[in-house]
Amino acid sequence: MEPQILLDNLCFGEGPRWRNGALWLADMYDRKVLRVQTDGSHATIVQLADDEPSGLGWLPDGDLLIVSMRKRQLLRFNGRQLTVHADLGNLATGYCNDMVVDQSGRAYVGNFGFDLHNGAEPAPAQLIRVEADGTAAVEDDDLMFPNGAVITPDGSSLIVAETLAGRLTAYDVAGDGSLRNKRTWAQLPEGAVPDGICLDAEGGIWSASPLSKECVRQLEHGEVTHRIELDRSAIACTIGAGKLYVLTAASLEPDQCRASRDGRVEVYAAPYAAAGHP
User: With 80 as the cut, is the pLDDT of residue 196 above it?
Assistant: First the structure.
């Protein structure tokens, strides 16, 4: 399937979100948060001076939350000033990465769990709950690279991508935001691993799989309903206005991504509308 290229010349796109008719994303290795219009025009909303952004979300008052990866912080941008919303350095054992923010402003943040880029042995990581006031606690400390996450429209379930386990893991969400009843929602097909994910209105989850270079839509328990094969790594995806927006990269190596600026936003038809959070 031939994609429409909405935007190129990115270092490495992450954390795509659809909000108010526009696509938001983090250009991770360029240290920018971008807002992209449907005609491809775009603006830099936040430029980080000394860290890499990843997951994005919003508080109920409209303030933007940004994962600051290496510093293991959650930042808050009110349109004028960037502040630290939560410091996760004493909770996360690796670089923080993607997250999901619910309608009350509660965030769930994943992390690598180990020093990925310097060849450390994989180790379990934490999924951290951050309340709207910035207080934080570990919800689960036994996940293999918790990454993209979604919350169902009724707020009752959270599903997180365990990238290194090749599966989507679900929890029930209690009234206080704590997570219970951990279970496998779906195992990805052989060779595929979930990075960024998104949920649609018919209960399917799209997983961007960088290693198998595809986007896979599954139902709970694993049935595959759609697959989009790519010629490059699929990093993350989101749905907006009837389209599936897929962030892709020609390389997964940080230095090569910065040098080549070969990341882009590809657009495909989405069979179902978006649902839930983000």
Answer: yes
